[in-house]
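Q: Hi! First time doing this. I have a protein sequence and I read that you can turn it into a structure. Is that right? Here it is:
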Amino acid sequence: MDILVFSPHPDDAELGCGGSMILAADQKLGVAVADLSEGERSSRGTEAQRMQERNEAIDLLGLSERFSVGLPDTEIGQDPRHRLALIQLIRETRPRIVLAPHWNDRHPDHAAAGKLVQEACFYAGVAKVGKGRPHRPERLYYYMLHYLLKPFIPSFVIDISAVWERKMAAVAAYGSQFQSKGGASETALSQPEFVRFIEVKAAWFGAMVGVAYGEAFYLPGPVSLLGFPGLAGPPLQPGKLPPYSMY
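A: Yes, that's right. Below is the predicted 3D structure, encoded as structure tokens:
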């Protein structure tokens, strides 16, 4: 795999970096998602519904593969064997890049997943830990779901404007989570305001770099580049204004 995305529950990867996965798949890169849990303790929907929704999202995202790690929902990272399961998957798929939720998240499973993936990426390169041939991914990037304490300042933002509708179609595949049925088990995520929040967040990150919609990523260190950013495309034509950006 070129890119392996760890998702605490089915739908988290779509919310956090669905557009970036679509762009990578369109470039013929091998993109896979590993669902750490089945989301079996969600307030809404059954396991069978979640599996059907997950399978629909596979095609919408253009994934090469989607794995079920089988960790218990609401208990991710609470058993040392959880790390070994991730190490095994990393060694089997041998990704160049790994994506994980940021560890500073209000949902305990999201926060635990970010820490667990970081540990697994490191120890996957240590021969005497676990089984199989060692492999350490070249890069680990964190995507943002719910950030705590202060505004999220990304290391880079990917322009997903061209695939925005396709990302939202993948999110909408999880109707049990994000569509109101008017029943007794309504949640904050099933209300129309949550879909608007997704769009506002993408517009906020897009405005940082002067595009309509963006997905934000963080890494604790500098990004390696082959040249100065901003020089990849043609220069602005005379009389044409540059797009608005926050910075």
